[in-house]
Structures are given as C-alpha cells and as structure tokens.
Design brief:
CATH topology of the largest domain: hpI Integrase, Chain A
Order of helices and strands: HHHHHHHEEEHHEEHHHH
Distance between the termini: 57 Å
Oligomer: single chain
Number of helices: 13
Number of strands: 5
Structural class: mainly alpha
CATH architecture of the largest domain: Orthogonal Bundle
Radius of gyration: 23 Å
CATH superfamily of the largest domain: Intergrase catalytic core
Strand order of the largest sheet: 1-2-3
Strand content: under 5%
C-alpha cells in the first residue's frame, strides 16, 4: 500500500517523523512528501548523517554539484532535489538559503516515445482481463498509471462520458474523456468488483482505504460500493497505519510487467511502457486537430509548454517536412 501515508507518532521526536508531520500540516500531496523525504535523506546521508542544522549553504552546494557532475542527473531531477532541500531549511528549519552557487545540470531535451494508433491497439490486444481495460483507459483517457490504478467506482460518469481523476499530479483533480466504447467493459468490471466486495464482506472484511479524514466524515463509506477501487488487488493486505485488513488497488509494478510483456509480444522495439499510452493519447488528439489548450486540460499539465512537446513529436504545421526520397519514385 505504497500510496497510503505512513503512520507517524502523535508526538514525533525523530527528525524525519517531524518533517513528515510538518509536510502533512502544510497539506502537501503524499507524492510530494515521499519525494521530499527521499531527497532529504539522500542529502543527509551524503554528509555522513549529520543533522541539517549543522550543515551550511556550502554543504547544500556540494550536494547539488555532486548530483550534476558525479551523478549526471537531469536538470529536472536536480531542481526537484533543490526544492526538497529549500523546503527543509526554509519551511521546516526556518533557515533561509541565500546566494547558492552550484553547477546546474545540463538541459537534455528528450522527445517522448509514442505508439502509432496501430501499435497501441496491437499492444492492448495482447493483454487480457483488467490489464487490457487499464491499457485502454491509459490510451483512451490519457491517464498516468498511478491515476488509473487508483480509480474508484464513483469516478466514472457514464452519462457525461467523463472520468474524474482525483488527487492527480500536484494534488489536483481533473476530468477527462471516457470513451463510450468502454462503457460495457467498465460495467462488467464494476460487476466483478461488486462480487469480490460481497465475498470480502462475508469473510468479515469489505472495507477500503478512505483518504484524509473522509473515513470519519463518512463512516459508512469504507464499505460502500462507490468507494471501491475499480481495479482491486488480488489479495487482502494490512493497512500500515491502522493495521486493518483491506483490499487495496492493484500495484503499478504488476501492471507495468504485463504491459512490458505485451510490448515484447507485439515485436515493437521502442523504449515503451505504460506511460507511452498517455503520450500516444496526446499525439493522437493533435493529429485529429484538437487545440493544445484542450489537450493540456485533459492531461492535467500545469503549463502549456509541457504539452507543446508533443508538437515536436509530430512535426506539425510549419515544421512538417517530407524527405526528398518521397518524391524520388524509388
């Protein structure tokens, strides 16, 4: 249950528990918490586990230089590490970092790998069961794998042909298109979830994890169908915070493994994975003539510049070029 916040003591004394408490008090997304904690731990271990209060700006610069020069990380990765460390000092330790001087990682612009429409369908048809349906949703709705596996029954609006993505990247909700061709398959999946829920309830279980304080606000919600995960895990598991036995959603690594097998079976020799379906959703919409702002909204990008990279993949408009060989008659 990697996306359920770890339990921390009511009165935390250890540094990382205090940091987690402070992050949650600020209302940051759990994905942000995990990212910040990971980078801050790396920073502390790099300096032989010294307490951050004992480290100066020079130590911060040394770590960021190490990431750029020795680890050869990307500019975005270095920026993420910097954001985590700035949060540690400015927001948690109340110590401002000023005039940092370090080697910026070089900007390496890589175009996303995409499937053609035929390739995407070929990979999807190599999958079966709920894995096929998840791939169809990632390709047909532009979902990240984390968004797909965390879908709940209530997030599907068949009447409006909409999927509601809850707590997406950046902690934001958004809506995206729900393909009508998937309605029957999704209703069949919901029926399977209902049967599994009824069996779990007969066995003395049947609860599902409720985020934040919703379990207190809606005490019956944990046993209701609308809150059930659309793609439940095969086995029950212990909640790390409450020790309650619940059925969580399928793990992303399990889905990634099945999709990788389908890509190999399709004999598609691209560096592709589940996220390639999301990239392919965006490029397909561009090919159909949808405007970049609409695609930005459906993908949930904060900046349109992020979405514009797909135009470079297609080389549309003034950048469209045909090889001279196309006119050679060979």
């Amino acid at each position: 249950m990697y996306d359920i916040p770890k339990k921390i003591p009511d009165r935390p004394t250890r540094l990382m528990d205090q940091l987690r408490f402070h992050i949650r008090k600020r209302g940051l997304a759990y994905t942000t918490e995990k990212t910040y904690v990971t980078w801050i731990l790396r920073y502390i271990r790099f300096h032989n586990k010294q307490h951050p209060r004992e480290l100066s700006e020079a130590h911060v610069e040394m770590f960021l230089d190490h990431l750029s020069v020795q680890q050869n990380v990307s500019k975005n990765t270095q920026r993420t590490a910097l954001n985590a460390i700035v949060f540690l000092y400015r927001d948690f330790l109340d110590k401002e970092l000023t005039n940092l001087s370090f080697t910026f990682a070089s900007t390496k612009r890589r175009l996303p790998v995409v499937f053609s429409h035929e390739e995407a369908l070929t990979v999807i048809n190599k999958l079966t069961g709920q894995y096929k349906l998840m791939a169809q949703l990632m390709f047909g709705c532009g979902l990240r794998i984390s968004e797909c596996i965390r879908l709940r029954v209530k997030d599907l609006d068949f009447g409006m042909n909409v999927v509601i993505v809850r707590d997406g990247k950046g902690g934001k909700d958004r809506s995206t298109v729900l393909p009508s061709v998937l309605h029957d398959h999704l209703k069949e999946q919901i029926a399977r979830v209902k049967l599994l829920h009824e069996q779990d309830s007969r066995d003395g279980f049947g609860e599902v994890y409720m985020p934040n304080r919703l379990a207190i606000k809606f005490p019956a919600g944990a046993r209701s169908m609308e809150w059930k995960y659309l793609f439940p895990a095969k086995n029950l598991a212990k909640d790390p915070r409450s020790n309650a036995i619940r059925r969580h959603h399928v793990m992303d690594r399990v889905v990634q493994k099945e999709v990788k097998k389908a890509i190999r079976a399709s004999q598609i020799y691209k560096h592709a994975n589940c996220h390639t379906f999301r990239h392919s959703f965006a490029t397909s919409l561009l090919q159909q003539g949808y405007d970049i702002r609409t695609i930005q909204k459906l993908l949930g990008h904060a900046n349109v510049e992020t979405t514009e990279i797909y135009t470079h993949v297609l080389r549309q408009g003034a950048n469209a070029v045909k090889s001279p060989l196309e006119r050679s008659g060979l």
